[in-house]
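Reproducibility note. Readers wishing to regenerate the assembly model reported in the main text can use the exact inputs given here. Chain order matters: entities are listed in the order in which they were concatenated for prediction.
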Amino acid sequence: MQTKRSTFPAGWLPYALVAPQLVITLIFFIWPAGQALVQSVQRQDPFGFRTTFVGLDNFSRLFADPLYMNALSVTFVFAVGTTLLSMSVALLFAVMVNKLIRSRDGYTTLLVWPYAVAPAIAGVLWWFIFNPTIGILPYILDMLGYDWNHRTSSTDAMILVIIAAAWKQISYNFIFFLAGLQSVPHSLIEAAAIDGASPMKRFWTIVFPLLSPITFFLMVINIVYAMFDTFGIIHATTQGGPAQATNILVFKVYMDGFIGQNIGYAAAQSVVLMAIVIVLTVIQFRYIERKVQY
Amino acid sequence: MATITMDTLEKTYPGAAEPAVKGISLDIADGELIVLVGPSGCGKSTLLRMVAGLETITSGTLRIGERVVNRLEPADRDIAMVFQNYALYPHMTVYNNLAYGLKNRRFPKAEIERRVQEAARILEIDAFLGRKPRQLSGGQRQRVAMGRAIVREPAAFLFDEPLSNLDAKLRVQMRVEIRRLQRRLRTTSLYVTHDQLEALTLADRLVVLNAGQVEQIGTPSVVYDRPETLFVATFIGSPSMNLVPTDFVRSHANGHMPPLSDRADIIGIRPDSLLLAEPPEPATPLPATLELFEPAGDVSHLYLRLETLPEPLTARVQGRPSLEEGAPLTLWVRHGEFHPFEKETGRRVE
Ligand SMILES: Nc1ncnc2c1ncn2[C@@H]1O[C@H](COP(=O)(O)OP(=O)(O)OP(=O)(O)O)[C@@H](O)[C@H]1O
Ligand SMILES: [Mg+2]
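Running the prediction on these inputs yields the following structure tokens for the assembly.
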């Protein structure tokens, strides 16, 4: 197919038009990334007087560090938990809202609102709700015979951060799933009904497979979100504790770099994070380029 | 194999002021192919979907075989449907598209295999069993949709404009094939179309619907030769039937009028009933002026002005007669080809 393109005379104009975008990208993304790369092969003394080149020393220390290994596995559990929870709840909501006719828009609007709440505020919200001394949920759980305390129990702490992180993402996933459900032709469902499939079977054998491109897209988006965008939530709720139980990679970078002042070590961690983002992005693009799978 | 019996079926969509289907009664014999035909929005699809169980029935009784099926789920009605857009499952292979209904009904694997292969052979789609629907042409998709209906060996087939997405040539071909298949399987069928050629060629009996009501039920030849209402008269046949006031015909007939009821104030004349020469049978003359001559392959359409009438008449004649536009001529109509109607009731009167 031929595409029409308008051509500009080669000159300063095209450069001027992309310049603002380039400048922003350079200053806020490329430069810090470069800094991190440089610092990841250096070590500073505690007072910042001397910087020495140490090669890959920071990285080898990193992968020998049991605390870092712990952060890796914590991040894995956290990302998988958050993604599963937020996607399954969002899908459930989308399926239910999609069944409505008149009130659909109202519910959609309400369900999208949480997305506008900043992560830190969401964190504080959940901090209050789950607070072992004053929170409403521990109170209710206590009546049911469960002693909730995310300050001492690592399981409770992990559940708390997963719920807090997933909550906000439900809105985002919901919108995509709802749009996906609405694009499944109604006659397919009717054909399946005539073909003797129960509503459950129709969903799992017809609708869900047709949603798979959206599901995959959301999976990558949610994993990226859980791994990199949840600093505020951890900060406001558990601070990585108790005993490192919720110390995910991004939070550990902050703790080691800004609190522990171990700049080189933190930089090496951010380089690892960058590598993970790049891999996820490549997977995403590869997949989207190939488009729909059926 | 089953009969389908509709007893004053009615459907009002929620919030609609008027019913979409207004008390339709129809007995379909075992093995019969009934075509529902009518203008857009007359309720054809609605009626078909009520039989399928995809729309609820507001009132009336629907039987498939001896069973009242009003409240049964589509799956329990033992019917198969072919959709206008085919509704093939895009993520499944052709084989799985055909097998899906059988798997859901827990047929043994060997039986599924046998039936799918058999259907594929009949429809000549064996070569595509491993493909996904998007890798098929429109005509092949159509066959797969048919295949999905026949593997189930249901009591009845329901078709909702299954050929309207095909090009003209393929449509004729598939029409013939559907007819052949239905003759062979002898499965009771209900077929919706708004293409009257499809309707006339396929149907054992034709049901002409208008605004949710039955206008006429009959074999294609009866509906064409003896339309019971003005609506059917003008809807079936192309170009459509000419309508001329009886007074006008009488004033020019010079006494050559057939015996007509007093109430017959409109006379319908098919375009092929307007003759350019006086036939041996008793006929009525009509003076006219040729307004436009339109050759259409082996026939020609003539648009004829009759002095005081506002609308020109259409005639269809064989070949390409050498006529001059603007020339006066006399048309002849055999007495046996008059279709007398009463304007007020819109019904045939004889
Ligand atoms: N889901 C619906 N809700 C409300 N009204 C409907 C619905 N479906 C159809 N109708 C109305 O019912 C009437 C009959 O519609 P139907 O689809 O049966 O027509 P049809 O004869 O199949 O027309 P076409 O030839 O265009 O397919 C129409 O007036 C239509 O607007
Ligand atoms: Mg229709």
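We highlight two features of this model. The mean pLDDT of chain A is 84. Strands of chain A lie at 42-44, 51-53.
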